[in-house]
Amino acid sequence: MKTTIDQVAKHLGQEVTIGAWLANKRSSGKIAFLQLRDGTGFIQGVVVKAEVAEETFNLAKSITQETSLFVTGTVVEDTRSPFGYELQVKEIEVIHQAVDFPITPKEHGTEFLMDNRHLWLRSKKQHAIIKIRNEIIRATYQFFSENGYIKVDPPILTGSAAEGTTELFHTQYFEEEAYLSQSGQLYMEAAAMAFGKVFSFGPTFRAEKSKTRRHLIEFWMIEPEMAFMDHEESLQVQENYVSYLAQSVLTNCQLELKTLERDVTKLEKIKAPFPRITYDKAIDLLKEKGFDDIEWGEDFGSPHETAIAESFDQPVFITHYPADIKAFYMKPDPDRPEVVLCADLIAPEGYGEVIGGSQRIDDLELMKKRYEEHQLTSDAYKWYLELRQYGSVPHSGFGLGLERTVAWLSGVEHVRETIPFPRLLNRLYP
């Protein structure tokens, strides 16, 4: 019976055949241990010399790393294994023998591993990270579906910028100038006016020459937009969503978290509601922590976000930033127009901002004024202005960066490991 590693528990005591690759092996005189992977998981195959044909045992001792195989054996319980099962091997059929696989069990430098990213993905750690990424994506679709949202896909090629053109990739769109999208948000606002509650999930691009562990050139964003929803209601959606992601990973990725040696007690604390502080109080907090040079009106960098997060054991919202350092579409606080109804969600453990969101301006005249202040061309943004002209309503939205969230929940230091093929300032290969 042919099966996969993630399904062997259903075949306890039965003989099965698994298509797999040899990840690693070790052997003594009378027994060989084969570390097998098939894409769904990892399992140990045990080959006992006295219980198999001589040629099978010799093959088990000679096959090379990453050789592809059909392995037939009996599924048995193994309490010493993190997976809980192993395979008592009876037969081995080589499909293709790999020679001189470049990534060996020894230590390799980061640049070497990145040059071989197409092969590094096969390792147990990378497998665990991408499985957690997949769980976050699955849970995202489930959360928004259960809460009445529909998925809408904004364009990747756009004729305007969501937050200014300084960090955009330019391209020629026949006779027009176009950009790779840095956010689908403006288009999602249009979708919210049609469908009420929507979300998008897709790639975004920032031509930002940053080399920090939190930045990628190409990354994926989840961007919900909600009609008839104010800032406070949006914050509740955000904290419920992030809590849902954390609990889904805890429930469905136990083996992967163990592989990564993640401290799950930190994830267990991620439950709504989250603490909130205003930008004003954040400034005061930073000064108390020794950041004497930070002044009101300045944006926060990574050291500032980390210092703020250290005061909390959960993610923390920083709300009501100065209008001058935030995007043109954010709604001013009616009681204090110099700040806007916005929030950044800062993850603990130094992972920084994972969500940015705000209530959007819904007043036509105020948006016209913002257009003038930011010198937005009327042609490129005409359609966005019209959203305030035809049945405008209070509405809010946010964007969650997938890779930063994967890094945080999995405990990985650098976002380059949280996406299958990262695009960095100095890397477009493989």
UniProtKB/TrEMBL annotation:
It is found in: Cytoplasm. One of its GO terms (cellular component) is cytoplasm. GO terms for molecular function: asparagine-tRNA ligase activity; ATP binding; catalytic activity, acting on a protein; nucleic acid binding; transferase activity. Its EC number is 6.1.1.22. One of its GO terms (biological process) is asparaginyl-tRNA aminoacylation. Residues 130-430 form the Aminoacyl-transfer RNA synthetases class-II family profile domain. The keyword Protein biosynthesis applies. It is an enzyme of class 6 (ligase). The keyword Protease does not apply. Keywords: Aminoacyl-tRNA synthetase, ATP-binding, Cytoplasm, Ligase, Nucleotide-binding, Protein biosynthesis. It catalyses: tRNA(Asn) + L-asparagine + ATP = L-asparaginyl-tRNA(Asn) + AMP + diphosphate + H(+). InterPro entries: Aa-tRNA-synt_II, aa-tRNA-synth_II, aa-tRNA-synth_II/BPL/LPL, Asn-tRNA-ligase, Asp/Asn-tRNA-synth_IIb, NA-bd_OB-fold, NA-bd_OB_tRNA. Belongs to the class-II aminoacyl-tRNA synthetase family. Homodimer. This is Asparagine--tRNA ligase.
